[in-house]
Amino acid sequence: MDPHPGPLTGVTVLELGQLVAGPFAGALLGWLGATVIKVEPPGGDVLRTWRTLGADGTSLWWRSVGRNKRSVVIDLRTPDGQTLVRRLAGKVDVLIENFRPGTLEGWGLAPDLLRAAHPRLIVCRVSGYGQTGPYSDRPGFASVCEAVAGMRSVIGTLDGQPVRPNLSLGDSLAGLHAALGVLAALYRRDAGGGAGQVVDVAITEAVLAMLEGMVPEAARGEVRRPSGSTITGVAPTGTWATADGRAVVIGANGERMFRRLCSAMGRPELGADPRFEDNPARVAHRAALDAEIAAWAGGRPYAEVAAALEAARVPFGPINDAADLLADPHFTARGVFETVEVDGAPLPLGALAPRLTETPGRTTHAGPALGADTRAVLAERLGLGDAALDRLAADGVIG
Known about the structure:
Shape: elongated
CATH topology of the largest domain: Rossmann fold
CATH superfamily of the largest domain: Crotonobetainyl-coa:carnitine coa-transferase, domain 1
Helix content: 25-40%
Structural class: alpha/beta
Number of helices: 17
Order of helices and strands: EHEHEHEHHEHHEHHEEHHHHEHHEEHH
Number of strands: 11
């Protein structure tokens, strides 16, 4: 018995698909205690070879996204592989897939067929554009979906040049929405009715859900554009350079907060300046206000700026990179980094969220070796003996 069960202990997830969005949903559910059986093709999830590789040639990104999962290699392009997954679907609570719409149907694994045999099964489908609509059969990478769904239109420099964060934001947002949808479907199934359902998650719609007031604003004729390190309609908020070449992010757009900023700057009279009397006035005179803050921050080192802002209780912070995060005492004190062992050496992984007081999530192990659990899972879940497993391995169905 696990002495520290997570809130989803007892839930079993079958994860199909590769790369980020679907697997991130699986990682979230697994971190919260679900048993996640990840089905990989021969050769493994492509993510195993992306970005920085460890000493054994396995991606460190995979070690994070594959955490807490059991790796099972099954060739879904073979009839026997499809049969195995069809049988496994009857032994789990949730199936997550992020193939292009129609792929499961082509393999005889359509959700309506699976659910007809197993009515309690929840099938979560993650794709670029959703399971219906004129774009549904397009391949949907996060970079493209972020653009199509409007996010990239407000990420860029003040002169309008588009940029992208060095992250797969759209995939992660879709994974979060997929996990949320699965939790809602599990609650509905177990709280009343007993039936599963299909959760349809589009990367584009997960991105669109983050657009705040952009859609109603556009309907009234105002289209939001890139704003550099600021945000439209709010002041002061932005990034300023300090005398020692560092950057400080300051957000002081509340009235009392702005006056505290003025005091921290040694310029309390700015708090009574009619140009800056409220947020609309500050937005109208943003350039003048930004110049005042720039002159103050640029005339002293970061440590002095930070000390003044902290004393005045003004929201501020540095722009940390990942190395800064690992050295930050706050994140260390909060237990944000969970250490696992990979090839005999410790490896920190960022904890997932949210944090629960009684049944917290946790990382039990990093993403496993390819096919590390194939035989064990098929024996436990389907009752296959060594002879059957040997035959399937010899035929290239499992690995």
